[in-house]
Amino acid sequence: MTVAVVVPTFRPKINELLSLVASLQAAGRPVLVTDDGSPAIFDPALRAVADLGVTVIRHERNAGIARGLNEGLGFANDSGASWLLTVDQDSELPNGYVESLLPWAISGVGVVAAEHIEDASGSINYPSRLVDGQVVTEEVIQTGSLWSVAQMQAVGGFDESLGIDAVDAAACLRLREQGLKVVLAPDVSFTHHLGNARQVRIFGKTVLATGHSAARRTTMVRNRLKLAPAEFRQSPVHAFRTLRRVAVNVVLAAVVEEDRLAKTKAGLRGLLPGSKR
Predict the structure, then answer these.
(1) Residues 22, 52: contact at Cβ < 8 Å?
(2) Which of 34, 183, 192, 201 is a Cys-bridge partner for 57, taking CB atoms 3.0 to 4.6 Å apart?
């Protein structure tokens, strides 16, 4: 089974990016790096990656991660790959990572992801259940995930109108609407830094304060509300859980994070019709 890889970048750190790409190449995977409008100061990092023999696409204008992910789908299709691994520039994958996902990349599955994500704040886990011998969930983050090229193309790819926030959630929703599963590979993990996240205890429960900037708060709320009607039709339980998480995150931004006032205002702007990203 052939797997291609896309690494969307924005202001990449040269050593971090080179290490990631070199490890992917060593595993024999065709790799595409697509940059979302980084300033010229980051040219050395992208040139160094190109010198490794990797295809690099440069964009002058920042348009969000979905564009790069769709370029990855096209790259995978042109490479004859049936699955696409999407990896953020700051993610760290253990040896044999793709091989640990492939047994679950079967008919009826739209995307396979690691069961656990190791963040600087601690281990992050998805709500899950066992269905027909598979560990399934409703949505996964795109980094470290293995997407069916044919199925993603069939649902129209990643939604570029969302920019960056909830792009992966929207893709999982579309796959689930087609009766496809979002599957977790048991006991598989990788390292990824989710914003400036930290875990806090509230009423005896551990919740994640993401630490995202005020600039991101508006689209995080807006995009989730945009998806909410379709989410409720597909899975009311998941939709309610998602909106509850968004609400908690807005509250945490106003209570325990830095720039509290700016983040609170930004989150509230996401409730307004026609708010811009």
Answers:
(1) yes
(2) 34
Whether residue 151 contacts residue 78, with contact meaning beta carbons closer than 8 Å, is answered with no
Which amino acid is residue 74, in one-letter code? Answer: G
Task: Give the whole-angstrom CA distance, residue 87 versus residue 89.
Answer: 6
Give just the sign of the alpha carbon dihedral 127, 129, 135, 136: negative
Task: Tokens for 25, please give them.
Answer: 């190449």
Contact 30, 79 (CB under 8 A): yes
Query: How many helices and strands, by DSSP H and E, does the chain display?
Result: 9, 12
**Mean pLDDT along residues 26-34:** 94
What is the residue whose two structure tokens read 């209570």? 255
CATH level 2 (architecture), domain 3-191: Alpha-Beta Complex (3.90)
Q: What is the dihedral of CA 208, 93, 100, 209, to 10 degrees?
A: 0
How much is the pTM? 0.89
